[in-house]
Amino acid sequence: MIIGLGVVLVLAILFMIFRIGGLMEVAKDKREEDPWNNINGILFLAFMVLGLAGFFWYSIKHMGTYEPPVASEHGEVTDSLFWITMWVTVVAFVIIFIAMFWFTYIYRYDKNRKAAFFADNHFLEITWTVIPAIVLALLIFKGLRVWNDITGPASKDAVVIEAVGQQFFWTVRYPGAKDGVLGHHNYKLIDASNEFGLDLTDKNSFDDFKSATLYLPKGREVLLKIRAKDVIHSVFLPHFRVKMDAVPGMETQFKFTPTKTTEEIREEMNNPNYNYEMACTEVCGQGHFSMKFPVVVVEAEEYDKWLASQESWLKQNPEYMKYVPDNLKEAAMIKAGLPMNAPVQTATSVTLK
Ligand SMILES: [Cu+2]
Q1: Where does residue 124 rank: exposed (0-12), middle (13-18), buried (19+ CB within 10 A)?
Q2: 250 CA to middle of ligand 1, Å?
Q3: pTM, full prediction
Q4: Cα of 231 to ligand 1 centre, how many Å?
Q5: How far is ligand 1, taken at its centre, from the CA of residue 202, in Å?
Q6: Ligand 1 centre and the CA of 299: distance in Å?
Q7: Is the backbone peptide bond immediately before 168 cis, with ω within 30 degrees of 0?
Q8: 294: which strand partners?
Q9: Of 262, 268, 303, 310, which is least surrounded by CB within 10 A?
Q10: 164 CA distance to ligand 1 middle (Å)
């Protein structure tokens, strides 16, 4: 590596000495014209042709691999935005690319030609300011409208799911089939078992459950509530075109409606083992690569069955019943699905650490 750099450096210095020598001769009027003008001009032209050919060849060859198939409603809209922006950029890129290299070639030094000089040109300056300004304003206006819609309030019957990022895995919490509302959480209540910091003085938390899969219903709006425990992570569901940072101390959210079940995407991909996944797309530390979480999309009826069959977090951790206020204990046991004859531990007030 260092040897390679050294060789490049020596070659660059030799070339510079060679070039300066040539220019000195021109300056001393020893040579009429620098022969490198023509060579450089032709090299610029060659770079233009090869560069454009390479750009289009590569882009067209890989056209089908820029994004995985889309599987959400808003994904269709953001995809069209992406491609509109892409084409606007490609047109601008091609015009600028040709202008830069063609002009360098065609206006290379010619002893019979004198360069025109003008200090400014209002028409040119207005044109290249106003046209990009209008195009960018239109793109941003459309983009902002879509963004506000995606991150805006979800409908009342949206499926609410919480995703919590930490180094280096995700935990996912569902509100439970009985109330459909996530219980409060408090970071001060987090311990080895209570990973979410579930606040058991809130009756909505009794039937909340933890899931090892992000299970989603097709055709229903899903509201993903996102938070992080340590550093910034980022929820990335590429097929659903969902990407939102998970920020410590701040709740973010993203709503989307899946449009294809796992079965359907497998058929589309012609791969019976294909799976959706949730990844972290913020380089969050050494184990960043391992933050992969399985995602399954099923028909709405199947989702309801799955939801009803889940075991509440409180049932799996009955020792936390001691944090439930006395007047809510019975309701908590019913909602959590705990057997009523189980010994109830004596009340202890919840003290925040
Ligand atoms: Cu991460």
Answers
A1: exposed
A2: 15
A3: 0.77
A4: 8
A5: 29
A6: 30
A7: yes
A8: 277
A9: 268
A10: 10
Low-confidence ranges of the chain (pLDDT < 70): 1, 26, 29-33, 341-353
For residue 227, report the distance from its CA to the centre of ligand 1, in Å: 11
The string of pLDDT tens digits covering residues 6-57 is 888 888 888 888 788 777 776 776 666 677 888 999 999 999 999 999 999 9
Distance 71 CA to ligand 1 centre (A): 23
| Type of residue found at 331 | A
What is the CA(253)–ligand 1 centre distance, in A?
Answer: 16
For residue 174, the SS3 value is strand
Give distance in angstroms: CA of 230 to centre of ligand 1: 10
Residue 239 · residue 259 · CB < 8 Å: no
Q: What is the DSSP string of 202-239?
A: SGGGTT-EEESSEEEETTS-EEEEEEESSS-EEEEEGG
Q: How many Å lie between the centroid of ligand 1 and the Cα of residue 171?
A: 12
Burial of 185-223, coded b for 16+ CB within 10 Å and e otherwise, reads bbeebbeeebebbbbbebbbbbbbbbbeebbbbbeebbb
Question: Is 68 strand, coil or helix?
Answer: coil
Dist CA 248 CA 212 (whole Å): 22
Question: What is the rounded distance in angstroms from the CA atom of residue 137 to the CA atom of residue 249?
Answer: 33
From the CA of 226, how far away is ligand 1's center (Å)?
A: 12
Q: How remote is the CA of residue 329 from the centroid of ligand 1, in Å?
A: 37
196: which 2 tokens?
């979410």
Query: Ligand 1 centroid to 287 CA: how many Å?
Result: 8
CA 160/CA 351 separation, integer angstroms: 28
For residue 216, give both structure tokens.
């989603």
DSSP state for residue 248 in the 8-state scheme:
B
Rounded Cα distance, 166 and 229, in Å: 5
Spatial CA neighbour of 240 closest among 74, 64, 86, 66: 74
